[in-house]
Amino acid sequence: MKGAVIGLIGAYGSVGRQVAQLLAPRVALRLGGRDRQQAELLNRQLGARAEVRVLDLWDAQSLADFCVGCALVINCAGPSYRILDRVARAALAAGADYLDVGGDDPVHERLSGQLPAGRRVLLSAGMLPGLSGLFPRLLAQSFQRVDAMRCYAGGLGRLSATAAEDFLLSLGNGFGQAQCAFSQGQRVRSSASTPQHLERPWLPVSGVPAYAYLSSEQLRLFSDLQIGHGQGFNLFEGGQLAAALQRIQGLAPEARDAAQNVAALVQASALDVAGRQPYQLLAVEIDGVRDGREQHACAWLRAADGSRLTGSVAAFCALHWAQLPEGLHYAAQVLDAAACLQQLQRWLPETRVQLPDFTGVALAEAEEGVL
User: Fold this and answer.
1) Counting beta carbons within 10 angstroms of the beta carbon of residue 193, is it exposed (0 to 12), middle (13 to 18) or buried (19 or more)?
2) pLDDT given for residue 367 in this prediction
3) Model confidence over 142-190: pLDDT tens digits?
4) Where does the Saccharopine dehydrogenase NADP binding domain lie (predicted)?
5) CA-CA distance, 33 to 16, in Å (whole number)?
6) pLDDT-above-70 percentage for the chain
7) Using CA atoms, how far apart are residues 114 and 123, in angstroms rounded to an integer?
8) 259 Cβ contact partners less than 8 Å away, ≥ 6 residues apart
9) R_g of the chain, CA atoms, integer Å
């Protein structure tokens, strides 16, 4: 999108900042947020390369004015489950394409069949959802048949208030369902009804509790790959966050995202990570047929910061925008998985990735290039 203006909403948040740092040297960038001082500070850190606009995304005129003149609007603001399609519709009305690090099924449902011809909207373009649905495809592509797939996501890190609120708003709102699995083309009750204490070489400690949870992204993944049996697990190391979440899930749906519950999740995550090294982990295990015989394979990715990983996925999407198909899509279903992973490792060299040799993805040998 050389020469075109890209508008970035939520620019000085933890995710938006990463997007801005990666895009500013490469594209014309417009930074948006309610606090001009923070936006100006970020712009100075970027070498004064960007344009700064004060933006209140809850004010329709302010949002419309920000989007006018942009070829692409990237939304890194939250909570995603409150914003829904608000920013997407403003971007489309202004003639811009739209990229959302969240979005998920509720936004997809609201926009389905309503895009003008020739336009692109990409949803769930972050770490989770996004990379969590893309990474398993790298391992699966070498199999002639996948009989079983197990996907793991989680780790250890402090939640922001916005992330905690979004997490609570996603409960029962189309993101997924606890204690469920995928079998023979449909969602079923999981046999793993209680937490499993995992012992895996890719875990930093032993006995990490894994809770069965089938996300809508995993449901699409398993369906796309025609997997016999699929299972998703959320990992909660430390125990405080998992305990707080279980308590909140027992409340009435309309009370779950109350301010005290958001604060409780933030506090619980802080207790879990106190004195520990934060990390975010994605892992996948496959049983299936490769080279004409039954095989088992595993791949994993561990990053220090989920926000930086999310921002990097979004930046990759923006820089490859012209190569993406027109229409409304989820990032995991249309991105080039190998190219995305290789670029993430260039931008985030501290991120550790383990893939079997047979995938053909040469991460360590990838050459630096200009996108």
Assistant:
1) exposed
2) 39
3) 999 999 999 999 999 999 998 898 888 887 666 888 889 999 999 999 8
4) 6-101
5) 10
6) 96
7) 15
8) none
9) 20
Residues 6 or more apart whose Cβ sits within 8 Å of residue 293: none
Instruction: Provide the pairing of β-strand 180-183 with 229-236.
Output: antiparallel
What is the pLDDT confidence band of residue 2, given thresholds at 50, 70 and 90?
A: low
Determine if the peptide bond prior to 204 is cis (ω within 30°): no
The residue with tokens 């939520």 is 10
Domains, the chain: 5-123+308-335 (3.40.50.720), 131-304 (3.30.360.10)
The CA dihedral of 9, 281, 162, 86, to the nearest 10 degrees, is 40
The CA distances from residue 107 to 58, 167, 196, in Å, are 17, 16, 33
Over residues 22-44, the pLDDT tens digits come to: 999 999 999 999 999 999 999 99
Q: Is 190 helix (H, G, I), strand (E, B) or coil?
A: coil
Alpha-helical (H) ranges within the chain are 14-23, 36-45, 60-67, 80-83, 86-93, 104-111, 131-140, 161-170, 216-224, 240-249, 259-273, 306-319, 331-334, 337-347
CA atoms within 13 A on the CB side of 154: 24
Q: How far is CA 134 from the centre of its chain?
A: 10
Integer Cα distance of 52 and 341 in angstroms: 31
How far is CA 351 from its chain centroid? Answer: 16
Measured distance CA(88)–CA(250) in Å, rounded = 33
